[in-house]
């Protein structure tokens, strides 16, 4: 019968073994806690849109409901259903990335065109929020999983919009050298505190600025996973109040040198 942590103070192999055993035990405890908090976060994130859908669907049943209210309630139901669907999609993607089960593709494509496509997709939001976007994109071929990377640019772009200020701006850059490509997203938004920088890529982490915006706190975890899968790295520079810059560096494979 053992009790943990093992208290074997010896300088030989048995001592080392018991020390690594204790470390493993701690790691398992930590994983278990992380798993429990993950489940409780997911449940909460599913619960609130579901409650809203149920609540407004009930209100819609009233016979004498004015048309304006009917439209407003339907719009809320629609928006909450979309939130659920995006949450499910992000969770499924993260889970399969975590399990190493994602069938990663390696296809060659024009990275500059892909970035332009992401900008086109969110043009309406830029206009709606009065944000000025400019880009300098060097023509660049890249070999990787195009669909996963599209996810990365969309997450970084929508964050740069969401956490910006009205009338603010965004700059996207794409450069490459012999070894790697660099993609940067620079915004003039609320910025990120020193403390928040350390938690940015944690699952479900949402900063203070996120309180009134749509989101799941999963976007940057996905960005991190996808960049890691491509053996790349992420640098974040930020000045609270002034804006942030996310710089993604992806190594070029031997087959592609621009
Ligand atoms: P979400 O946007 O759904 O909250 P993310 O994982 O994409 O989740 O981002 C985590 C948090 O990081 C956000 O809640 C926000 O506080 C902070 N953040 C991300 N991008 C930016 C940015 N460009 N400027 C300021 N804060 C940001």
Task: Draw up the topology in text.
Layout lengths: L12 H48 L6 H32 L8 E4 H11 L1 H6 L3 E6 L3 E4 L1 H17 L6 E8 L3 E8 L6 H4 L21 H11 L3 E7 L3 E9 L7
Parallel strand pairs: 2-4
Antiparallel strand pairs: 1-3, 4-5, 5-7, 6-7
The structure holds adenosine-5'-diphosphate.
The site of adenosine-5'-diphosphate (ADP) has 22 residues, from helix 5 and helix 7.
Structure at a glance:
This protein is α+β, with helices and mostly antiparallel strands.
Low-confidence stretches: none
Question: Helical percent range?
Answer: 40-55%
DSSP strand count? 7
Structural class: alpha+beta
- What is the mean pLDDT? 90
Q: How would you write the strand order of the largest sheet?
A: 2-4-5-7-6
How far apart, in Å, are the first and last alpha carbons?
63 Å
Beta-strand percentage range? 15-25%
Question: What does this 3D model show about the protein?
Answer:
By secondary structure, this protein is α+β, with helices and mostly antiparallel strands. It is built from seven helices and seven strands, in the order ααβααββαββααββ. The strands form two sheets. Strands 2-4-5-7-6 form a five-stranded mixed sheet, covered by helices on one side. Helix 3 packs across helix 5 and helix 5 packs antiparallel against helix 7. The chain is globular. The termini are far apart. 19% of the residues are buried. Adenosine-5'-diphosphate (ADP) binds next to helix 5 and helix 7. Keywords: ATP-binding, Cell membrane, Kinase, Membrane, Nucleotide-binding, Phosphoprotein, Transferase, Transmembrane, Transmembrane helix, Two-component regulatory system, Virulence.
